[in-house]
Amino acid sequence: MLAYVLIRLGGSVIVVAVVSLIVFSLTVISGGDPALIFAGDIASAADVEAIRLRMGLDQPFFKRFFGWAFTVLHGNLGTSLFTSTPVSSLIRQRLEPTATLTVATIVTSIVVAVPIGIMAALRPDSWLDQLVVASCSVAFAVPGFIVGYVLIYLFSLKLGLLPVQGYAPLSSGLGNTLRTLVLPTATLSLVYVALLARTTRAGMIDVLAQDFIRTARAKGAGTVRIMFRHALRNTANAILTVVGLGIASLLGGVVIVETVFGLPGLGRLTVDAVMNRDYPVIQALILLAASLKIVVNLVIDLLYAVVDRRIEV
């Protein structure tokens, strides 16, 4: 186990290094001039040049890259060109809404989707199974922002039950926070519920057709025991894969959902940084997303061995 973890960590370091090089290259391939953005529209050519010298933009590319990488390794992600605020501070300020939304989405998806997938698998080709499959197909096809606007219209504008936009921090009370997260979580969970339900259904149908399930039934094992002790446990790896992919790819969905619902999270920060061509913030967010995906993949791989003892790491 330890050797496997060390090997994966070594590979992860290489991947992060490559991603860091690509991310830093954004300042070159984007065609913009950070010094010009930082100086503003009324700055003179001399002012822009002075800023370029101060930011080290006159130095060779790889010298700038290794200097940036050195500061990142020491926890310094740079300074925002638009707000002149340390990027690490901006990320800390915006982390809570995104983290709470992500946790709420994953928990909701698992709690809703797994039972739906199990019920559909118990009666394949029944009306319930066909309804689940059709509903999942529709959920995949509907864009998230449309779902968000429909939910806002129904539950906020028409019924007045939930706020249209905004976020209540955890310091204001868990109830207030959850109230502001209901609609964003429902919007973001829709596609993951569909994916997880389909995965659970397919995995359970496949496992329930195996010989060891028939043997368990012949020995008198009850339906509940068969479903949870045998079938669901053997489907857990597929479920873990979908959960891992969902966590790693949530940032893309969070960008849309946070924009629709006005949540001050990392998604909104990403949109603002792109619109303002705030390269240090963009670089830090992409590096953070890549690192998160690497960590999640490693954790999921280790959980495979915990759930399924046949897998050795």
List keywords for this structure.
single chain, 313 residues, mainly alpha, MetI-like fold, 13 helices, 0% strand
End-to-end Cα distance: 5 Å
Structural class label: mainly alpha
**Overall pLDDT confidence:** 80
Provide the gyration radius in Å: 24 Å
Secondary structure tally: strands: 0
Estimate percent helicity.
over 70%
CATH architecture of the largest domain: Orthogonal Bundle
The CATH superfamily of the largest domain is known as MetI-like
Number of helices: 13
- CATH topology of the largest domain, what is it called? MetI-like fold
State the name of the first-level CATH class of the largest domain. Answer: Mainly Alpha
The unreliable regions are: none
The rough form would be described as: globular
**SSE string, helix = H, strand = E?**
HHHHHHHHHHHHH
Describe this structure in words.
- The chain is an all-alpha fold.
- Helix content is 78%, strand content 0%.
- The chain has helices at 2-24, 26-29, 34-39, 45-55, 61-73, 87-122, 127-141, 144-158, 174-208, 211-218, 223-261, 266-276, 279-307.
- Helix 7 (127-141) crosses helix 9, helix 8 packs across helix 9 (174-208) and helix 9 crosses helix 11.
- The radius of gyration is 24 Å and the shape is globular.
